């Protein structure tokens, strides 16, 4: 088992999704049980499903200084940076530590692939149109290049692309960078936007629900896709009331390209390692934000893992009924939702779900519950069996 790590302070965090911009909008939606999902109005080709779309991206080009980076994904990143004073927090962090000592670790599944799709749709005599010819739009590191230019960080700059666990794993990478002395602080960013290849690709796998997703419901029919930008600032020390990253666990079971291991071996390993690094026993965990995609196999496997590890004193639920599955941004978005749940001592029940799957144990919350949350976990599981569990705690 891994050794216990020193907790790190989360000195700032924010999220932008279909629920709105910033922490207050997300907290209000959780408390009101108000979903951001709506009928698909994104794809020009018909696809009957629900999506979690962020308003205003089409009408919000990047500032002229960053015109060569203009894409839907980078627009969402810029919009997200403006929420909760996060951009100012990063600049203050750079003043404290120096630009060369602040790392930038980003997680994204599709990056700016939407811009590449658009370029092919608008081919001009076999060439990309001029406004989509910038090479940095057509690379998996597009998000990292843009954010480094916008933020002014000069430390290590890494992109993690491990499907749906991408922006959970950036917490683990940042912890290692700080522990090894390669940086004194890390900006964490997870951004993914809707695009045709993802919507129709998941639909081809028969994983997209024609209605809003219903995590862990007995009659669930699949996932709803969404888009989001999440950011966090990780430092060794912070204010007394700043939440802490207590631990993380990572694994890769490589069982199948798109199906989880039937016994959840990778998920179990990630969970066990997160608890070990945090120095926690399962009974000390108050809440777990599950991956909960509302697909048949993922939810069944994750429910079985929960039943084996936790008793009813630990409450568990999934929040994708609010936001949809935001792919590479899911890890950091759901970490932000978990931190908000801790702030308000609210267990957000599984939204849209009414009849629990028989595999669900007594730990599951389907309605919102008010209860103290001192320690919480967040699960993120990606295609190919790439898994990550994060452990968070109150400062005290």
TrEMBL record:
Pathway: Lipid metabolism. Gene3D superfamilies: 3.40.47.10. One of its GO terms (molecular function) is 3-oxoacyl-[acyl-carrier-protein] synthase activity. Residues 1-394 form the Ketosynthase family 3 (KS3) domain. Its EC number is 2.3.1.179. The keyword Transferase applies. PROSITE patterns: KS3_2 (PS52004). This is Beta-ketoacyl-ACP synthase.
């Amino acid at each position: 088992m891994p050794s216990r790590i020193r907790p790190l302070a989360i000195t700032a965090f924010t999220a932008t999704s279909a629920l709105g911009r910033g922490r207050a909008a997300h907290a209000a939606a959780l408390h009101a049980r108000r979903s951001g999902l709506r009928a698909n109005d994104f794809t020009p080709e018909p696809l009957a499903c629900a999506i979690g779309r962020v308003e205003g991206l089409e009408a919000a080009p990047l500032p002229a200084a960053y015109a060569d980076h203009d894409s839907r994904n980078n627009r969402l990143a810029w919009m997200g940076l403006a929420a909760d004073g996060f951009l100012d927090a990063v600049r203050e962090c750079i003043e404290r530590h120096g630009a060369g000592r602040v790392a930038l670790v980003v997680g994204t599944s599709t990056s700016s692939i939407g811009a590449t799709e658009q370029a092919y749709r608008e081919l001009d005599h076999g060439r990309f149109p001029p406004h989509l010819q910038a090479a940095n739009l057509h690379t998996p590191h597009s998000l990292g290049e843009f954010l480094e230019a916008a933020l002014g960080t000069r430390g290590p700059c890494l992109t993690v692309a491990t499907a749906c666990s991408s922006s959970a794993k950036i917490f683990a990478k940042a912890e290692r960078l700080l522990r090894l002395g390669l940086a004194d602080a890390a900006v964490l960013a997870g951004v993914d936007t809707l695009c045709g290849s993802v919507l129709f690709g998941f639909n081809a796998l028969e994983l997209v629900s024609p209605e809003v997703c219903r995590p862990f419901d007995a009659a669930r029919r699949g996932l709803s896709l969404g888009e989001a930008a999440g950011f966090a600032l990780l430092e060794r020390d912070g204010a007394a009331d700043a939440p802490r990253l207590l631990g993380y666990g990572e694994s890769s079971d490589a069982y199948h390209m798109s199906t989880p291991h039937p016994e959840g071996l990778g998920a179990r390993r990630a969970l066990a390692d997160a608890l070990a690094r945090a120095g926690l026993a399962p009974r000390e965990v108050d809440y777990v934000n599950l991956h909960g995609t509302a697909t048949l196999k993922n939810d069944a496997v994750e429910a079985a893992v929960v039943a084996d590890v936790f008793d009813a004193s630990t409450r568990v639920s999934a929040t994708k009924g609010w936001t949809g599955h935001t792919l590479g941004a899911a890890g950091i978005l759901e970490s932000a939702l978990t931190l908000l749940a801790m702030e308000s001592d609210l267990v957000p029940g599984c939204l849209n779900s009414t009849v629990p799957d028989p595999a669900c144990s007594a730990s599951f919350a389907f309605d919102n519950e008010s209860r103290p949350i001192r320690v919480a976990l967040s699960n993120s599981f990606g295609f190919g069996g790439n898994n990550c569990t994060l452990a968070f705690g109150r400062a005290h």
